[in-house]
Amino acid sequence: xxxxxxxxxxTFSHEQISDHFDxxxxxxxxxxxxxxxxxxxxxxxxxxxxxxxxVKFDDMVPPTIGYTLRDHTPPPFYAKYIQDFDGGxxxxxxxxxxxxxxxxxxxx
Length: 108
What we know:
The structure is a single chain. By secondary structure, the chain is α+β, with helices and mostly antiparallel strands. It contains three helices and two strands. The chain has helices at about 15-20, 25-30, 35-50; strands spanning about 75-80, 90-95. A two-stranded antiparallel sheet has the order 1-2. Strand 1 (about 75-80) and strand 2 (about 90-95) form a beta hairpin. The longest helix has 14 residues, at about 35-50. The radius of gyration is 17 Å and the shape is globular.
C-alpha cells in the first residue's frame, strides 16, 4: 500500500510524518528486500528533485554494499537479503577478517 502525502504535510513534525506512513512498522519488516542499485538511483534522483538538488551522492562504495566510513574506506560488512539464511531474511556479512571485539560500526 502506498500512502499519499496528507494535506499540510509541509508543516508536519518528523513524528507526525513517521506516524502517517507507519514507519516503525515498515522499519521492522524483515521480509522486505533490500533496494537494488536501480532503486537506490531512483531514490537519490527523487531526493535531489524534491528535497535538495545540491546534495551529491558520489560515495565510492555502491549503496547496495554500504557506504564509505569516516576513514574513507569501504565498510568491513555488507547487508544482504538471503532466502536460505536461517529461514530467510536479512543478514550482515563480513567482507574481511575482523579481530574479536573489533568495532565495525559506531552508528555515526
